[in-house]
Task: structure prediction
Amino acid sequence: MSNLVGVNLALIKRYFGSKEGLFKAALAATPRFLGGTQEFPRDRAGLAEALSHQLSAGAWPELGEHPVLMLLRVSGDEKVDGLRRAALEDFSRQVLEASGMAQDVDERLLRAQLVVALGVGVAVVRSAVGLQPLRDATSDDLIGPLRDVVDSLLAPPR
Result:
């Protein structure tokens, strides 16, 4: 892949040092709470609300697709793959923290990772498949089902 959209490897090395540096810069520039400036929600209700906006149709017009799709692209670079894994692990821990549950319990982390996987799945199905009504679902359409899923997976055990 010597030339992608008019950018060659020499330019990547000059400005970012490596593909890993480019990936780090892309992660750092990701808008909103996926690694950007907006604060991560601090409770389950806020998490469901934020996800309903993040996953709604047209949520990322400036990018053309959901930025999580960038995390799924195969790089062939072990360092970049490690950064991708670290980004998803960090996001999962933030989801776990928003649930208000202990962070060192594997089952709770698994539940948080399932919420992350749901978000990734929505982005993929919307982008790659265009499945209706999900493809055109608004934040208002998504908030109820997402609140149910988040509460089901992340509510304190009884």
